[in-house]
Amino acid sequence: MLSGPVVVPRLYNGHNKSFFLANYEGLRSKTSTNNFRNVPTVAERGGQFTNPIVNPFTKVAYPGNFIDPSTFSALATSSLSHIPDPNSTAPQGNYFVTFSLPTDSDQQTYRFDQTIGTHDNIFGRYTQTAYVATSQSTGGSFAEGLANFSETSKSVVGSWTHTFSPTLLNQARFGYMSEGANLEGQQTTAAALSALGLQNLYPFSPDLPFPVFSFRGNNLSPFGGDAVIQQFNEQPYSISDAVTWNIKRHTISFGLDVRWWHTYQNNPSPPELTFDGSGSGDPFADYLAGYVAQATALAPTPYAPTIASSNAVAYSFRYFAPWIQDDWKVSQKLTINAGLRYDFNKKPVEDMDRVFWLDPKIPGGGEYTANKSIIASGIGGSLYAYGGEHFPGPAQVMNFAPRVGFAYRPSSNDKTVVRAGYGIFYDTAETKEADDGGGYPFAEQVSLMDVSSTSLFPVTAALAPVTSTDLGFLFIQTARTHSPYMQDWQLSVEREVFAGWKAEVDYLGSKGTHLLGRVWENAPTKWDPANPTPVSARIPYPNIGLILDHFYDFYSNYNALQAKLEHSGRNYSAILGYTYSHSLDDKSSEAGINGDTSGNGPQNEYNFNADYSSSSFDITNSFVGSFTADLPFGKGKRFLAGSSRALDILVGGWEANGIVTLRTGFPFSVAATDINFINQCFGQRADVVGNPQAGGFHRGVNEWFNTSSFVQPAMGNYGDSSRDILRAPGVENVDASFFKSFALVERLNLQTRFEGFNLFNHTNFGFPNAGVPQSAALPNPSFGTIGSAAPGRIIQIAAKLIW
Q1: At a CB cut-off of 8 Å and minimum separation 6, what does 106 contact?
Q2: CA 8: distance to chain centroid?
Q3: How would residue 480 be classed by pLDDT, with cut points 50, 70 and 90?
Q4: Contacts with 412 (C-beta within 8 Å, 6 or more apart), sequence order
């Protein structure tokens, strides 16, 4: 970093009025993770099974439970090489793999500040960043399924502050950013894709990884590429102006925030193939025979002829927010804060009106479209209707957000302060969830059930009126839009308990309303064994296949007690903080996180309340302690005070930092199988038949909870275990650093740093395998075991020049 006044000898002296800053930061980091996976046995890869299996197409039993490799499907023959052989006998899994996960980042910042006269100050800043990281993502569980995330941004910020008088000040700000964020999988080859025999899809593109192969019911790890591919960029602009006016005991602030931004997003996902044993009795046998329980893929249309346009949307957004705040100093002991903000988000507009939402008025279900041209051209047929607007739902015009609070000093010695506050905070539009460009005819998401691999995929017909075949999978908006908002409240007491020591106790609470989440809207009603009917007879919209909609119907609440002890002294400072909290909700994010059994909707789409439980990010107990200290060694210190100069250079002047983190683990659910996908349940949970924390087992990595307490629900039943019923292992971690500066020449110092992350190399285990066995014939030997952990000790040595 380089900073200082702008001085041009003999031309300009900018001391006290012109300043510059130039900064560069770079990071090159590589971590690794150890993971256990489950792969087919060598015998199963060769077609030999231990349980009875039948030909999924003829229903004739395979003699000796053996599938002749010469009869393997072309799909299996050409993709078997993507599944590694077993290399482990551990209960956590029969395949062990270590992933290397590098991270690179670079950032440049340039800033200029200028004072103009006695009343004006301006500043400008330019920042440019580049970030690249490899991570484990959704999709394949092996190296081929790793994801590469890259993000670049360029931003400009400017500000002008004008002082009208000692009591009146105005600040105007402007901001612009250009950001690109891409999530990419590992590249495959045209030959590897061609060998699978998948027809009528987009031509080979380096943007798409190998297809994803998943198994339901037998706990085999999925293989193939990363399932989530994202190409995203946005250009937000912002202008704000704020006036601060001091009037006697009042400090009144008011202003206006205006923002507008444009986004582009494309999610060209690879084909996904799922096998569940509904054909042969074993998911892997289905795979070998070429019987696919579910297949989805993007198919080209004349509106989207290339993968770059396959699922693309481009939205424009507008935001407007006036506000006012009054800080009233009632007395020397009491200050009251009150304010009001109005948040208005104009409904977004998609560049080509590629927006669809459900039309329940069409018999059997159909869609509204924002695009007049496809209706005028006849492409809408009997299943589309013009929606009459660019985006569904009513405009949200009543988003008033009041805030109120106070600070009170009850005693005259000013050692105690009581604070409290309440406020409402609205969320802006969920930009990245406004992704529905794949609707026919702009693209086509083909979704097939119970099909031979030789039939993947059917020919996409020339543009014609939409049919049910074109509506196999919908990712749409909802007409029941709301503005998500949070209500936050807090009460705190802060007191100086000793000289240099300050204690604080806080109660915090919040309530989330109209939170956004994905929902499978066309889920069938529960299967009744007394009156068995197919899925097609139990879904509300038989004209349509799967519908992934976005509902603003989720909610949350959070309560926490926090205690903090803080010391700031000459030789050391420390902060000790403890939080006891509980966060509850019926969905913890738009998609899914941590131990959710599914990221897309509750277990039972007709009973959201059954998913109300601990949030997937909930942490009951958390302690964080940090310190900074001058080590007491060397000249003038407590120890070795009489050191020679040489010894003092070695041992004197060192400083130390440390952070201690102790917390309980995240919650997770115990997953089960929706047998034969009879309820189309993507988030099936297990039945609980006992106390999972009861005795009778030795808790450890080989059995984290009492696995006998959970069983597979009967076909057609939803699991009765609650969401997030168990807790993963917690975290115990110590990070520390030791550093010292050496004076080289005048104004030039060399700082050396020795840093240790997870200094004591404590093993922080990951989530256990939480998939209950479907049956004795389809066991899960890894159920309850832990097969992953956070990185171990990382030692880092660094040097920094300071001038």
Answers
A1: 24, 25, 26, 27, 129, 130, 131
A2: 49
A3: confident
A4: none
- List % helix, strand, coil for the chain (3-state, nearest 5): 10, 50, 40
The DSSP letter of residue 361 is: T
HEC readout, 499-566? CCEEEEEEEEEEEEEEEEEEEECCCCCCCCCCCCCCHHHCCCCCCCCEEEEEEEEEEEEEEEEEEEEE
Neighbours of 625 (CB within 10 A): 16
Q: Which residues contact 165 (CB under 8 A, 6 or more apart)?
A: none
* Residues whose CB is less than 8 angstroms from the CB of residue 6 and which lie 6 or more positions away in sequence, other chains included: 12, 14, 18, 19, 20, 112
- Amino acid identity of residue 308, one-letter, is A
Say if CB 756 and CB 738 are below 8 A apart.
Answer: no
How many Å apart are CA 382 and CA 387, to the nearest integer? Answer: 14
Amino acid at the residue 80: L
The b-or-e profile of 546-558 (16+ CB within 10 A means b, else e) is bbbbbbbbbbbbb
Q: Identify the CA nearest to 784 among candidates 683, 696, 654.
A: 696
492 backbone dihedrals φ, ψ, rounded to 5°: -140, 150
Query: By percentage, how much of the chain surpasses pLDDT 70?
Result: 99
pLDDT at site 556: 97
Which tokens is 367 given?
């869609």
What pLDDT score does 113 carry? 96
Mean pLDDT for 578-583 is: 98
User: How many C-beta neighbours within 10 Å does residue 639 have?
Assistant: 11
Please say whether the dihedral angle defined by the alpha carbons of residues 356, 210, 184 and 794, taken in this order, is positive or negative.
Answer: positive
C-alpha angle 483-487-493 in degrees, rounded to nearest 5: 160
pLDDT at 295 over 80: yes
Q: Residue 195: which H helix or E strand, with range?
A: helix 190-195
Per-residue pLDDT at 432 = 63
Cβ 686 vs Cβ 717: under 8 Å: no
Instruction: Outline where 360-497 has alpha helix (H).
Output: 372-376
Q: Quick one: which of 355, 547, 371, 388 has its CA closest to 468?
A: 547
Quick one: average pLDDT of 653-673?
94
Q: What is the mean pLDDT of the chain?
A: 92
Integer Cα distance of 13 and 181 in angstroms: 42
> Smallest Cα–Cα separation from 76: which of 229, 224, 270?
224
pLDDT tier, 746 (very low <50, low <70, confident <90, very high otherwise): confident
Count of Cβ atoms closer than 10 Å to residue 533 Cβ: 11
HSE, CB side, 13 Å, CA atoms: give it for residue 680. Answer: 24
Residue 802 has pLDDT above 80, yes or no: no
Residue 181 contacts residue 263 (beta carbons within 8 Å): no
Q: For residue 371, count other CB atoms closer than 10 A to its CB.
A: 24
Residue 383 and residue 465: Cα distance in Å, rounded? 9
Give Cα separations from 696 to 95, 389, 692 (angstroms): 28, 62, 10
Average of per-residue pLDDT across 779-796: 90
Residue 555, C-beta contacts closer than 8 angstroms, at least 6 positions apart: 511, 512, 513, 514, 515, 585, 586
DSSP tag of 54: B
Residue 797 confidence class, pLDDT cut points 50, 70, 90: confident
Query: Of the candidates 488, 493, 629, which has an alpha carbon nearest to the alpha carbon of residue 568?
Result: 629
Confirm if 239 and 173 have CB atoms less than 8 A apart.
Answer: yes
- pLDDT score recorded for residue 429: 61
Q: What is the pTM of this model?
A: 0.87
Buried b (16+ CB within 10 A) or exposed e, 241-267: ebbbbeeeeebebbbebebebbbbbbb
Residue type, 340: L
